[in-house]
TrEMBL record:
Protein's name in the database: ABC-type Fe3+-siderophore transport system, permease component
Main location: membrane
Coiled-coil residues: none
Single GO molecular function: transmembrane transporter activity
Lineage: Bacteria, Bacillati, Bacillota, Bacilli, Bacillales
Organism field: Paenibacillus pasadenensis
Alphabetized CDD domains for the sequence: TM_ABC_iron-siderophores_like
Membrane disposition: Multi-pass membrane protein
Pfam families attached to this UniProt entry: FecCD
Top-rank taxon: Bacteria
Entry GO terms, CC: plasma membrane
The entry's keywords: Cell membrane, Membrane, Transmembrane, Transmembrane helix, Transport
Length: 347
């Protein structure tokens, strides 16, 4: 089966990168490295530099500080993976729907994944990461198809406003179902209540290993689809004229987005707004070319989620504030501003 990018003209495929792309890439990697160091150093217990080095490079050292660092490594790696996945998922969903405020949380995809996980907890007694992931993927995929179908009805097809409204309505309905399933089952509520706000605090290496294939598959799909998605931004007619099979492209790109956000939601909970923040930031800096926006959205998403986790640990000290709460505080005002700007432009 041919890649969706195969039909894009060579002139577009070979167009140069933005002049400042290398500088943005280097800056992004430096900031990401600083976030990693801060994630290992800050928390309920501050770790000094020598303890950080012992925890990373001297396994024979068995001090309390070194063990704290080793405990935080899996959490930091998990935050990087989840943030990168959500950043790329947001870029894909915005490109597929041609909606600048599309995001897994806004379109209801996270809530669909959450509903299936709750059903698994309540009725199937699921307990392993692999079971969580497959149920969450099924819920995310069904919800994505449903929202896009509802948003495509009527005149004008799937407009940005109709998709957001369909996603909001679907998310509210599914959230009500989640509550209805949990209330009479206290054991489900106990398992679900911490997961539902979104957290990377329960990261394990086995969970990361389960998540990694979905992360690599989703990012690979995104990179392969990026040139064709650039053509899709010109409109379906123009993309078809360039040889892009728009239906097939949307299916493949949406599949990549569902893999990324579904797997992340299964293990970390429904963390919102990372895709919105990361993708808009990269579009603002680099322009609309998805061949550069997608990889940089992965870096930006990883940095934003890791930084949000650090803020949650410091703000809630000696406990911690879950990362999903922090991202909601940051993302909700941004969504309001973007919606207002889109409304003004439409007038």
């Amino acid at each position: 089966m041919a890649s969706p990018a195969a039909a894009i003209p060579d002139a577009q495929a070979g167009s140069p990168a933005p002049k400042h792309f290398a500088a943005v890439l280097i800056l992004g990697l430096v900031l990401l490295a600083l976030c990693v160091v801060a994630s290992l150093a800050f928390g309920a217990r501050f770790v000094r530099w020598n303890e950080l080095m012992d925890g990373l490079f001297h396994p024979e050292v068995d001090t309390y500080g070194a063990n704290v660092v080793r405990k935080r490594i899996s959490r930091t790696v998990f935050a990087l993976c989840c943030g990168g996945a959500l950043g790329v998922s947001g870029a894909l969903m915005q490109a597929v729907t041609r909606n600048p405020i599309a995001d897994p949380s806004i379109l209801g995809v996270n809530t669909g994944a959450a509903l299936f996980v709750v059903c698994g907890l309540a009725f199937l007694n699921i307990s392993t990461a692999s079971q969580y992931i497959w149920l969450a993927l099924a819920g995310a995929a069904i919800t994505a198809v449903f929202v896009f179908g509802i948003g495509s009805m009527g005149r004008g097809g799937a407009t940005p406003l109709k998709l957001v409204l369909a996603g909001a309505a679907t998310s509210a309905a599914l959230a009500s179902l989640v509550t209805a399933i949990m209330i009479p089952r206290s054991y489900v509520m106990d398992q679900f209540r911490f997961w539902q706000v979104g957290s990377v605090g329960s990261a394990t290496w086995s969970g990361i290993g389960t998540f990694l294939p979905f992360l690599l598959a989703g990012i690979g799909i995104a990179i392969l689809c990026a040139p064709a998605l650039n053509a899709l931004a010109l409109g379906d007619d123009a993309a078809t004229g360039l040889g892009v099979r728009t239906g097939f492209l949307r299916f493949v790109a949406a599949l990549g987005g569902v893999l990324l956000c579904g797997a992340t939601t299964a293990l970390a909970g429904p963390i919102g707004f990372i895709g919105l923040l990361a993708t808009h930031l990269m579009r603002l800096v680099l322009g609309p070319d998805l061949r550069y926006v997608i990889p940089m959205s992965a870096i930006a998403g990883a940095a934003i989620l890791t930084l949000s986790d650090i803020v949650g640990r410091l703000a809630g000290s000696p406990g911690e504030l879950e990362v999903g709460v922090v991202t909601a505080f940051i993302g909700a005002p941004l969504l309001i501003v973007l919606a207002m700007r889109a409304r003004v432009r439409s007038l």
